[in-house]
Write a structure and sequence with these properties.
With 180 residues, this protein is of the alpha+beta class. 13% of the residues lie in helices and 30% in strands. The chain has helices spanning 76-87, 117-128, and strands at 2-5, 21-24, 32-42, 47-52, 69-70, 74-75, 95-97, 106-107, 110-111, 130-138, 143-151. The radius of gyration is 18 Å and the shape is elongated.
């Protein structure tokens, strides 16, 4: 979590609401974006503790249709594109599949129906030795999240990252930009 002073202008209840996106930017780190999951005001410390999950967590709340089964060989990139399209079918998640998704290895006998899209992506990654990640582009007007799919290249990015003030960044500011 992160704390913000109660008297900070950014601590307005118009800005800090459950579900709003928290954007963390730094000079030497890529942007981090995630929905606010909990707010806890500490009167003694005169702070508001903000808990947020990474943007990919919205895929945990979207379920692949029961019939999402692949019996014949199909490129794993096509499955990823289908999962992201399905996740956005009701209300858009803010995550789009990159237009140039790697076709990936073919997969047969895969049943992801009834799983969360996040679980389905994890299962697909395990079976193919590919990985997915979100490329985030943050501007004052919008946040763009592109889901990428490519051969596994390094450590497991599913584990949480811990960023510490004074070590990874010197100052943190939260602000909400409203699109016109």
């Amino acid at each position: 979590g992160l704390s913000i002073a109660v008297n900070d202008p950014q601590a307005s209840l118009d800005v800090l609401r459950l579900g709003n996106l928290l954007v963390v930017e730094g000079d030497e780190i890529p942007p981090w974006v995630g929905p606010i999951a909990a707010l806890d005001e500490s009167l003694a410390g005169a702070t508001i503790e903000i808990q947020a999950r990474g943007l990919a967590s919205v895929l945990d709340g979207r379920i692949a249709p029961q019939g999402e089964t692949y019996d014949s060989p199909i490129g794993s990139g096509a499955i990823v594109a289908s999962l992201v399209r399905g996740a956005n079918a009701g209300a858009h998640t803010g995550i789009s599949a990159a237009t140039s998704l790697d076709a990936g290895p073919s997969v047969t006998d895969l049943d992801v129906g009834g799983q969360s899209v996040l679980e389905a992506l994890g299962e697909l990654a395990e079976r193919t030795n590919y990985e997915w990640w979100l490329d985030l582009v943050v501007s004052p007007a919008r946040v763009e999240a592109l889901l990428r799919w490519a051969p596994r290249q390094g450590y497991d990015i599913a584990h949480p990252s811990h960023l510490y003030e004074g070590q990874h960044f010197s100052d943190l500011t939260y602000h909400l930009e409203r699109a016109a």
